[in-house]
Every structure is written in structure tokens, then in C-alpha cells.
Amino acid sequence: MIMMNEVQLDGESFEGIPIVDLVKILGHFFGKNDMIRNFHNFYSKLTKIDKILNIWRQRDLTLFGKTLIIKSLINSQFLFNSQVEIPPDDFLKAINKKFKEFLWNGGTPKIAHKSIINTLPDGGLAFPDLECFLKAQSLKALRGINFQEPVSYTHLRAHETSLHLVCRLLL
After folding, report:
1. Which residue in 89, 88, 97 sits closest to 39, CA to CA?
2. What's the pLDDT tens digit per position in 11-67?
3. CA torsion, points 109, 111, 117, 118, in degrees to nearest 10?
4. Whole-number percent of the chain with pLDDT over 90
5. Is 127 exposed, middle or buried (0-12, 13-18, 19+ CB in 10 A)?
């Protein structure tokens, strides 16, 4: 038995609300087991990503077209969940592998990665560098925090997830 604010938590229910191992809130799974939570939030998206890429592989797209498909249809599959929590490294590796296979039709890259992630005016394709893109999305959450005002507990609590992600990125 754990005492929380003078209320007993017995493992079955808390204040009449059942305690579960996994819960989905606004499209994101939260739970005790990291492996199950990561599967539902990230790894389960890989099959849908494969289906989307297979549909678009049948068309003769240019590099710009393939970049657009990745930016609009693929990144949107996991962007929300990656804003709530940082994706596992092996998931990011799998996504990057799928990106490269799609971009180069399973062959060897014809252009260096540093070149394709450059902006269009700099001669690149503006291809998303996934790791930098996810870090930028997490840092973007800091814009909503006004550090000039005195920080109250409720204010800090409202931005706890964003601050947690930023701290993990910076360490």
C-alpha cells in the first residue's frame, strides 16, 4: 500500500478509477512498460509507413517528389508521438533506412546526405534530417514559456513535458 496525499493506492483502483498498465490519451499511449508503450507509439507505425511507401514506389517520382512524400505523408505518422516523448534510437535508424531506400530505390545514394539536407537555394533537396528535425520540434515548445514571469508550480507543471524533452536533448 502506497500513501499518496492520505489516499490509499492498493494496485487495483485509485479513488474508484481502475489502474491499468497502458492507457491511450489523445492518441498517445502512456504506461509502465517501456517496450509496450514504444511499440504502440512508434513501432506499430512502421507497417503503415511501409504501405504508404510501397504505394508511392510504383510511381516514377523525382527526388523532389519523393522528398515531398516523406515530409508530408511519412513524417506525419510519428511526429505527434515524437513531440510527446523522444522516439527510441533503433526506431529512428529504421525510419532513416526506409527514407534512404525509398529515395534511392533501394540502391546506393547518388548524392551525399549533407547535400540533400541542404535548403533549395543552397543546392539541396531540403530533405528532412530526422534527428535535427525532432530536436527542433522539441525546442520549439520553449517558445510558449515566458521566462520573464515568476514561475509558479502550476505554470511549471503545464510545461513539464516540454521541459523534460528539452533537458533530455541537451544532456
Report:
1. 88
2. 678 888 888 888 999 999 998 899 999 999 999 999 999 999 999 999 999 999 999
3. 180
4. 41
5. buried
Q: Which residue has the cell 539541396?
A: 124
**Measured at the alpha carbon of residue 124, what is the angle toward residues 47 and 117, in degrees to the nearest 5?**
45
Q: Rounded CA gap, 9 and 20, in Å?
A: 13
Range picked from 48-57, 103-112, 162-171 for highest mean pLDDT:
48-57
Backbone φ and ψ of 2, nearest 5°: -110, 135
Mean pLDDT of all residues belonging to the chain: 81
**Cross-strand pairs, 24:** 29
Structural contact between residues 78 and 45, judged by C-beta atoms closer than 8 angstroms: yes
Q: Decide if 19 contacts 12 (C-beta within 8 A).
A: yes
> What distance in Å separates the CA atoms of residue 124 and residue 119, rounded to the nearest whole number?
5
CB 98 within 8 A of CB 128: no
